[in-house]
């Protein structure tokens, strides 16, 4: 159970064709479990890069990320994957559901080939209920609305009980009202499960409702402000 993530001098650049793109420059940030944080900023400002690094999907070019003082990214690939499975849940703008699998099967996918101390099927049914989709277990993604597909993706992100939920524009593909309901669901999970939520958004109204608002620009952290009180 990771209670704190600490980034020091985090820098990520990409090199190729004689050019160097700096996606993140010298970012210093800490996150405490249970926080509900919005990350905002213009396109290309480094928001997704930051989320990928925090979620151990990517490695920094320079700087460090410590999870409860442990630099997980310095470990082997399989140790990093185990860590990711135990601690992190991801939600994406494009849902990324497997089209030939039912809602229930999609939710079960992170548990394939994993040993867990609970009944996988019961757990998957439980989280589908938690996101309000108890009657859609056997539906394919194509038979679900955008909001419902994102709920399946959220159920999949929490099925393995992560302590951190990282969401990259989770409401970006949804209309305002559906987006607000997805936001409320993330808030509920944050309060009920105590998981830290970090979400990237382009929507200033949604960002303003978070407890902490981090603004990025050109790979730099422009500001880190206290938002709405819970
Ligand atoms: N794999 C890559 N190779 C080269 N450059 C990349 C790569 N990934 C990201 N970048 C560059 O890094 C910068 C930051 O990208 P990033 O996706 O983190 O921004 P963002 O704030 O999430 O943008 P958006 O809001 O459009 O999703 C951009 O200039 C982007 O072009």
TrEMBL record:
GO-annotated molecular function: ATP binding; ATP hydrolysis activity; transmembrane transporter activity
Pfam families: ABC_tran
Keywords annotated in UniProt: ATP-binding, Nucleotide-binding, Transport
ABC transporter domain boundaries: 5-230
Matching PROSITE patterns: ABC_TRANSPORTER_1 (PS00211), ABC_TRANSPORTER_2 (PS50893)
InterPro entries tied to this protein: AAA+_ATPase, ABC_transporter-like_ATP-bd, ABC_transporter-like_CS, ABC_transpr_LolD-like, MacB-like_ATP-bd, P-loop_NTPase
One Gene Ontology cellular component annotation held by this UniProt entry: membrane protein complex
Keyword Transport: yes
Keyword Coiled coil: no
Residue ranges that the Swiss-Prot or TrEMBL entry lists as coiled coil: none
Protein family: Belongs to the ABC transporter superfamily.
Record's protein name: ABC transporter ATP-binding protein
Species assigned in the record: Ornithinibacillus halotolerans
